[in-house]
Amino acid sequence: MRETVARTFILVCLLCAILLLITVFWNSLGNTLRQTIPISRLALGRLRNKELESAEENNTRSVTQKPFVILVYTQFFGTKEWIKITDDCSSPEIPGNSCRKDKVDLTYDKKRYAESEFVIFHARDMPGVDHLKTIMKNKPSSQFWIYFLQESPNATPDTRPLNGMFDLTMTYRSDSDFWWPYGSYRGIPFEKTSQLDFSVGKDKLVSWMVSNCNSHLRNSFVHELQKYITVDVFGSCSGKFGEPKSCPHGEACRNIIKQYKFYLSFENALCEDYITEKYWGRIGDENVIPIVLGGANYSKLAIPGSYINVMDFKTVKDLADYLHYLDKNNTAYNEYFSWRQKYRAGREGWSFLCMFCETLRTDFKQRGRYKDLTGYWVGKGRCNEKDERVRRMWS
């Protein structure tokens, strides 16, 4: 009996020792694997900055990350080197020093195509479909093609041959993977300051600079508006609206605009999120109130209280009557400049590099999501849907 108990005790001890040895071996193997398994570069790009810094500080991973190679494959309306990265991103919206220029390697050298993680194509300078199909044959599985465009779908080359080719988009649309709007704004701490009288020195009413004469909707609107209020039109199309007038580029033209109280910020196409320099370029020191006509949701994208929206009026005459009211009421007119106590145009320290880093900090969609690029860009672009509503303002 005693011998049986002794043998049982010895057997239990041996089993415990074996289990202990297995546990020690497994932990040692796990530590070795964690130190040697490489991390994919795209996975690193998606790590939160704090996580990456913590991993580096604790030396738990052997990380040797190279810069992301971004190949700009096309020109931009004939300009060869149209994207530049000269400084680190200094925006307070990007934490710490996580967006340094040494994190990306921007190149225009097509010989580096095979090593590039991202390849940018400007839609208006797009290579032929046969060329795209040829280089696609050698496209690395980890490479992302980016469809870049700042024009509206109405001014876009046919996208149907490109369906299934592009992985990401970089446009003014807020649902783009890389959002590159014409302008933006940010909130600032409210400061109560003495309100200036922005009507001083303005003895004229409405101005409009226009060079594209083919937008029949806005042309018809302006012709109708001229029945109720004086609108001075400048540019190559001005002869269609009365006596031809020119506005020289630069400071001389800005000085002309400063004489007016209102400016027609009319887009050439009414499309989703399409707000161009026609609005963003007129909220500076010219001190005019932009009158906007576009297909975007201005309450979502434009500076609150900085504009007059055509869509808020039932008829063109109603709009003209309101402008005459503001012309005679300086207090009401100056209200359209009170936004400057709460907001600033532009994002502090923002740049192409900041935009890129902001997207890298999110999870990319699976490659090939734009199998129907036309459905995304043209269909969801929602151009011309509001045209009839505008026409009803005078017909």
UniProtKB/TrEMBL annotation:
<dbReference type="Pfam" id="PF00852">
    <property type="entry name" value="Glyco_transf_10"/>
</dbReference>
<comment type="pathway">
    <text>Protein modification; protein glycosylation.</text>
</comment>
<dbReference type="InterPro" id="IPR031481">
    <property type="entry name" value="Glyco_tran_10_N"/>
</dbReference>
<keyword id="KW-0325">Glycoprotein</keyword>
<protein>
    <recommendedName>
        <fullName>Fucosyltransferase</fullName>
        <ecNumber>2.4.1.-</ecNumber>
    </recommendedName>
</protein>
<keyword id="KW-0333">Golgi apparatus</keyword>
<comment type="similarity">
    <text>Belongs to the glycosyltransferase 10 family.</text>
</comment>
<dbReference type="InterPro" id="IPR055270">
    <property type="entry name" value="Glyco_tran_10_C"/>
</dbReference>
<keyword id="KW-0808">Transferase</keyword>
<feature type="domain" description="Fucosyltransferase N-terminal">
    <location>
        <begin position="66"/>
        <end position="183"/>
    </location>
</feature>
<keyword id="KW-0812">Transmembrane</keyword>
<keyword id="KW-0735">Signal-anchor</keyword>
<dbReference type="InterPro" id="IPR001503">
    <property type="entry name" value="Glyco_trans_10"/>
</dbReference>
<keyword id="KW-1133">Transmembrane helix</keyword>
<keyword id="KW-0328">Glycosyltransferase</keyword>
<dbReference type="Pfam" id="PF17039">
    <property type="entry name" value="Glyco_tran_10_N"/>
</dbReference>
<dbReference type="InterPro" id="IPR038577">
    <property type="entry name" value="GT10-like_C_sf"/>
</dbReference>
<feature type="domain" description="Fucosyltransferase C-terminal">
    <location>
        <begin position="201"/>
        <end position="374"/>
    </location>
</feature>
<keyword id="KW-0472">Membrane</keyword>
